[in-house]
Amino acid sequence: MRTVGVEEELLLVDPDSGDPKALAAAALARAAHDDPGQDVFERELFGQMLEFATHPQAEMTDLGEEIARCRKEAARLAGQIGCAVAALATSPLPVSPSLTVNERYLWLADRYGVGTRDQLVCGCHVHVSVESDEEGVAVLDRLRPWLPVLTAISGNSPFWQGHDTGYSSYRSRVWGRWPSAGPTEPFGSPERYHRRVADMVATGVILDEAMAYFDARLSARYPTVEIRVSDVCLYAEDALLIATLTRGLVETAARDWRAGRPAPDHSVSLLALASWQAARSGLDGDLLDPHTLRPRPAGRVLRSLLDHIGEALDDSGDGARAEKGVEELLRRGTGTREQRRLLDHTGSLRDVVTECVHHTQG
């Protein structure tokens, strides 16, 4: 069975005011003091962000428990330094990001200017194991039209600098400002994939292969494909649902490749429109159907996704879990819907943040 790992970026905030706090270095120092060998928490681009990465898991029950445990540990570390963590993909309140000082991040700030300073956004990346680069590229080529659906499921960033953006996932629009971000054309082979990345680095526009910020890519560190389109989810169970659906998509794509079924030939320009539509409306409107790239109600698209990966889900024992997760998500809504509901109820973005701190810890 394919293993799955999840990386989540959390926002560090003042527990009373909700303002983002640049205390990641102190949180990481506390983590290293408590466990010198810890490999879970890492620094990110800005001091207001704290990232954790789970270990690879074959059983989704184990992965869900680890996500919850990492969130609670992040909350404990934050509490010891006078702040809290919130699973928010953008800060609802105005913020001036504080760059983490190291050689790489200083290069980004110098190269991209304000484009770097605007990147205080928190995502969720899912790694799914593959047997080889050949299988991995075949999977990437076949995942492409389904990735916007994952963006819609994860939508958790309606607010930016104190204002409602009108988007469900504004994080994805901000992330798309990087010159190497977004959907890709089919690669066809590992050789073409690696040649494309090498050509991009050779332009000098990006620093190295780690800056190939494709919506989905081969991991440079692990034998996995890395899917990078999701907001960090307000609810831990939604993060687990995305991981479950992502493994189903990877397994289904690999089976299609082995069976000789060709990759969809949707153009990058249409896939970019599908990504925009998913970011704009989330699950509260139409999405572009992955088969036809024509508008279709979000609920029906999610049912189509479950049908598409149903065999893989059943074979891994995840079918009932995925069905229940999708039903709950459609009933309750995404983090974006909850954030807007909280604002309507309280009239205060500060209250939105403090309530989301509680949601983050389950």
Automatic annotation (TrEMBL):
Keyword annotations from UniProtKB, A to Z: ATP-binding, Ligase, Nucleotide-binding
Domain of life: Bacteria
EC id: 6.3.2.2
Gene Ontology molecular function: ATP binding; glutamate-cysteine ligase activity
GO terms of biological process kind: modified amino acid biosynthetic process
Presence of the UniProt keyword DNA-binding in the record: no
Biological function: ATP-dependent carboxylate-amine ligase which exhibits weak glutamate--cysteine ligase activity.
Name this protein carries in UniProt: Putative glutamate--cysteine ligase 2
Organism of provenance: Streptomyces misionensis
